[in-house]
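Record type: monomer structure entry
Structure origin: computed from sequence
Chain ID: A
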Amino acid sequence: MFSLSPIKIMVIVAVVLLLLGPDKLPEVAHKLGSSWRALKRIQERVESEVREALPDLPSSGDIARMARSPVNLLNQLASQVDAKESGPDLSEPFHLDRSDEASAPLITTQTPRQPNVRAENSTLPPDPSLN
């Protein structure tokens, strides 16, 4: 990948100084600075318009962190899903609203009835009710 060490940056600055000379350097620096400020203003304006349209959108810093570390994002999302699937917090009492009572399902704890199953070499006679 492309990396700039301090030595490479110094070489680039020296080449730019030699090519531009002392006369044009302040003018070019001024143009670069004003262009940078204009880009920043455009970025801020676009971000504020997007925030107005989508207020729940994460901040641009959060989005940048997500893009740099997608595995960390997936781990956070998985932990949120696990927390939601773990069920209600039983440390707090659960109360139904009166409006919910009619639609609340009735929960029973009956187990299904098991038929009488006898082993093949059982000494008991077969149960006549099973016939």
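Annotation 1: The first helix runs from residue 6 to 53.
Annotation 2: Residues 1-81 form one domain.
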